[in-house]
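User: My advisor, Dr. K., asked me to get a structural model of this assembly before our group meeting. I'm new to this, so sorry if the format is off. These are the inputs:
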Amino acid sequence: MSRTTMIKALNTALRDAMVHDEKVVLLGEDIGTLGGVFRVTSELKKEFGAQRVVDTPLAESGIVGTAVGLAYRGFRPVVEIQFDGFTYPAFDQLVSQVAKLHYRSRGRVKMPITVRIPYGGGIGSPEHHSESPEAYFAHTAGLRVFAPSSVQDSYTMLRQAIACDDPVIFFEPKRRYHESAEITTGQVPEGVVKAQVIRSGDDVTVIGYGPTVYTLNEAALAAEDEGISLEIIDLRSLDPLDIETLADSVKHTGKVVIVHEAGPTAGLGAEIATQITEHCFDYLEHAPVRVTGFDIPYPPSRLEKFHLPDLDRILTGVDVVLRRSESAHQVGAR
Amino acid sequence: MPIVSTQRMDLEAGSLPTHRLLTVNGEREPSEELDPYITDVDEAKLADFLRDMMVLRRMDTEATALQRQGELGLWAPLLGQEAAQIGSVRATREDDFIFPSYREHGVAWARGVKAEDLLSVWRGVTPSGWDPNEVNIACQQIVIGSQALHAAGYAMGIKFDGGTQISLGYFGDGATSQGDVNEAMVFAASYQAPVLFFCQNNQWAISEPVSLQARTQLADRAAGFGLKAWRVDGNDVLAVHAVTRAALEHVRAGQGPAFVEAVTYRMGPHTTADDPTRYRSEQELESWRAKDPIDRLTKHLESLGADVQKYLSRGETAADELAAALRQAITTMPDPQPTALFAHVYAEPHEALAQAEHDYLQYLEGFDTGESK
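Assistant: The format is fine. Below is the predicted structure of the whole assembly, which you can bring to the meeting.
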């Protein structure tokens, strides 16, 4: 056990994966000599050389497309997309190639590619640096989508993503990059990544992932002061969705609030609400409520505090399912 | 004046010479640069090229016929491009890895892919018909130009793991407008990756003439990326073979990635769903018919004093056999079972999809009346 930041935990995961498997290669813009704009790949080029920590030309489709070729050759590429909003130039390669080649080749060609994307808002950046594009990829068959929230999970789930024979879109909660915690390294659990009940409670189930989980924990403490007990679930894997863990909780509490930064329409919350309704209809005491960003382009940074689900909006969502408030629409909670 | 000129580009224009070893009448033109690459191409080897091209043309016309009869959903004919495909693929080493587009049937077939496995995809029974690792050729790519990046990435892998293979990316003139093809050349040049981009300029991207894609010769573009380039008469199998060998030698010697533009012509429609009479003239077709790759090689063999009838009849026999076997295989090919819907979406277990499969199969079982099917 040692205390470390999320950035260092991710760095250690990459390092350990590269030591463990010499076919692991890293590709991305500025990841070599500079160590990445967030320093997640710091010092790795020095240790493993320029052929395993590859500074690439500035072309996202090129990065992902060459990763596909490397996977054909038997490599296990880990791609860094510098910021969420720069994922889109690579969209065709991700959706039409990375996601589909295992299916297209009838299982003869594996695509064990991990695409790391620092995502989400709250860091005061200009346009294209604060987006939450996870729903596009959860919607795409053939991809797995992970979104760790904690320092420990950043290490563990990145190791799991790299070890996975399927492609994984790995969303890193960049505004939590500097959080630190004691973590255990070296272990890579087998099997599918499940959701985790990170705080048990009786009154309302609150589901989030990535950067919002930190806020959910704050909400649970605040609610406790008012005598309301929240059960907090960190989704961790957005696809596959661990509906069993979610449903077990909602059957216990009868009420659910789903939180994410992306807008609500056709987002993860819509899918989660639907599946919970299908699995827990007879247990629900109120319709599922979503507390999310709005259906708008990500706003200028001086406006983002109004856009991101914060403590008050989450607690208002909780009040709505508890029928203590009628103002669901006012908080962007539907 | 029209916004976009539809004027045909002169085969000879541009900064690079268009290599040719056989005139349209089959006469051999000497080439100081290319002759050393084909010293071993004797009459027997030329006759093999002839047979390959004849069999390939028959496979292609048989596939078109099968589509017209409803046995295939669609077909993308390669008619007219036999020399460009056979001449190039026959220059590769067996362990060189090829990333083809959806029209490279000849390249795949020459690599050992069975004709019925090729057509099975176009029949709609499977998304791909072969194991890429067995024949060193990837699944056919339908998104225009995407595979150029896969070829570049594979070549980076060869460089990283110290292999001696070359990776080849095949694409057409239309693909050269795609970002992915341009990015592929950037990546290939940056890492000096052992990759050969082989562009069959067949003059048409569905209805769009090559003059809409480029106002320079396509091969001239490669220099801007730092790639060594050749342009070759794509209907001259001997010249295509020689140029591909020269380009592969350049790449294999570690001198960097290369680009070949084979100037040819798509004699058929883009696919069986296309109607080329809407956008090109009979006169243009006629001018290219005169450059037919099979006729040209036949005339050349005649000029060598070979027993051409023997070779033609051998080619026809092989073509007949392939066509009959292909027709038999396709018309008796069973449809896949519904379980194939769900197979291979993921390499590792996916509970939700497994549940969906289970539920759907149970639903289907509900229709089972117990009668024999």
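One thing worth pointing out at the meeting: Strands of chain B lie at 18-19, 97-99, 167-172, 195-201, 204-205, 208-209, 228-233, 258-263.

User: Perfect, thanks a lot.
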